[in-house]
Structures are given as structure tokens and as C-alpha cells.
Amino acid sequence: MTATIIDGKAFAATVREKVAAHVARIKDAAGITPGLAVVLVGEDPASQVYVRSKGKQTVEAGMASFEHKLDADTDEATLLALIAQLNADPTVHGILVQLPLPAHLDSDLVINSIDPAKDVDGFHISNVGLLGTGQKAMVPCTPLGCLMLLRHQHGSLSGLNAVVIGRSNIVGKPMAMLLLGDSCTVTVAHSRTKDLPAVVRQADIVIAAVGRPEMVPGDWIKPGATVIDVGINRVEGEGGKTRLVGDVDFASAVEVAGAITPVPGGVGPMTIACLLANTVTACCRANGLEEPEGLTA
Ligand code: GUN
What is the C-alpha separation between 125 and 97, in angstroms, rounded? Predict the structure, then answer.
């Protein structure tokens, strides 16, 4: 059997279209333009690429994009003052501070200074608590994107066994909460898990989010399972060229799985699409407007 390849690139395009359509409706009905502020501290090349891409896609969806680039040696007080200013700005509905921050800045303190209603990353402790207790939260973008792909693939996820490999605050933990919210039986596996292959073989849904290239081989996968590969790892390929691979060994897994996301072109494009979705959702909540359908958890 060869798995269905889940086309995250195409699905992300449909999410962006839904966002753009809702933005147009909000502009028409209420005269409000949703706005996203992105704060980048320092010159990390990968972060610069992400921030540029976020800004471009924000504008393409009809929203306002505000970019704030600060020097790598910016002190905490200056950054917190900028966040306070964005919190108070009614034209800004979403705030994202690009991570990682330079080592001298306390990421937790910075993230928790963002107004939770504008925390489109869903990293503020209030949003983590709301998600964990099944209340209306801002939901982290990558797990939200994975959930959308899974719902699209399966319809209902109720009663399915899901194994999340990785326990990060950005992906693993919120992913587990979202899957619980959709009535999956959830196992969170990590580096200390005993007999990981046996754990993964129980899963109808596998979410791989560890950041280790091709660590999940096909013979760990239950035949017919859905595999969502969150990994984006740069490895040296033939002729010294770098290539992107996931946390799953795609070549062997595609022969066993029922459906699988490729890398690139799977989960990756969903992250920014969900950031745009969260921004329009935050704008609607802030202004008492109807939220877009199918773009939240
Ligand atoms: N750096 C890598 N991924 C992310 C993300 O999802 N949000 C933020 N703010 N920074 C990141």
C-alpha cells in the first residue's frame, strides 16, 4: 500500500483564501482592517526569512503588517515598552515576537507581557491554561495547522489513538491538548519513553515533532495510520547539497501509512496560514464580530 500524500501547501492556500475572504467581509461590514505586528530582535538569518514571509502573506490576505526590527543588543525594558505600546494600539490585533530571542532576554517574561487577546502564537500562560482547560484560547499555529489537516483527512478524530512524539511547549504539549479536545486517546512520547517503536505502533495518528532527521522509520508505523511530520531538518545530501527532511523516514513510511505529510510541503506552509487565521480571529473577538468558520480549534 502507498499512502495518500497530504498536500499541506494546497491546503494552506485554501486557509489563506478563507482568511482573505473574512478580512474582506470585516472591512466591508465594520471598516476594520486586521493588523499583525511582528517583532524581530537581532539578525538571525532563519528568523529574518520567516518574518519577511509572514509580512508578505499578511499583506496578501488584505491585512495590515507592522514590522519592528530591533538590534540584537536591545535591552529588556526597551522591548517591554514596545510590547506595551502594541498592546495599547487598537490597529494591532495580533502580536508575534519571533523566537528565539537573544540569550540576554527572558523569553517567558517577554511572551507573558503580550496581551493574551493579541497573543496570536498562543504562547502566553493564559492561553496555555485556556487551551488546557478546554476554553476558548489563542492556539499555537503549528499544532492548529496539524489539527486542520487531520480533521480534513478523517472528519471525526473521536476515539482514535494518537501518539505525539516530542513534548515542546510550541508543538508537542499544545498538540496533545488539541487532540484530547477532539476526543483522541493521546500518548505523549519523548526521549525517555521506553520502547518507543511499540508505542508508535499503537497509533492511528502519529505526530512527529522532535527535530531529529528521519528518526521514525516505516516499520514503527501501524499500517494505514496517518502520519503528520512536523520536523524540518536540513541535512547534507548528494554532492554536498543540503536538503530538507522531516522527523519521519518518508521513503519507508509512505509504504505503510494510510496518509502522510511530506517535507517540505506538508505542515510547514500551514504554520503561517494559521498565524493569519489567528490574527483575523483575534480581530473578530476584539471587536465583537463573527469569527471565521473552520479556522479555529
Ligand atoms: N520561531 C520558530 N517558530 C516560531 C513560532 O511559531 N512563533 C514564534 N514567535 N517564533 C518562532
Answer: 15
Closest CA to 207 of 242, 180, 231: 231
98 tagged catalytic:
yes
The CATH number corresponding to 141-269 among 3.40.50.450, 3.30.360.10, 3.40.50.720, 3.30.70.980 equals 3.40.50.720
Q: Find the 279 Cα to ligand 1 centroid distance in Å.
A: 15
Question: Of the listed 54, 118, 173, 222, which one is catalytic?
Answer: 54
| Atom 1 in ligand 1: residue holding the nearest Cα | 99
Say yes or no: CB of residue 137 within 6 Å of ligand 1.
no
Instruction: Determine the atom of ligand 1 nearest the C-alpha atom of 97.
Output: 9
Q: Where are the domains of the chain?
A: 32-115, 141-269
Domains 32-115 and 141-269 equal at CATH topology level: yes
Mention the CATH class of domain 32-115: alpha beta
Structural contact between residues 208 and 171, judged by C-beta atoms closer than 8 angstroms: no
* CA distance linking residue 108 with residue 170, whole number of Å: 13
Q: In the annotation, is 54 catalytic?
A: yes
Atom 11 (ligand 1): residue with closest C-alpha? 99
40 φ, ψ to 5°? -120, 125
Q: Which tens digit of pLDDT belongs to each residue from 109-134?
A: 999 999 999 999 999 999 999 999 99
pTM above 0.90, yes or no: yes
Of 47, 68, 96, the one to substitute when testing ligand 1's pocket (max ligand atoms within 8 A of C-beta) is: 96
For the stretch 141-187, pLDDT in tens is 999 999 999 999 999 999 999 999 999 999 999 999 999 999 999 99
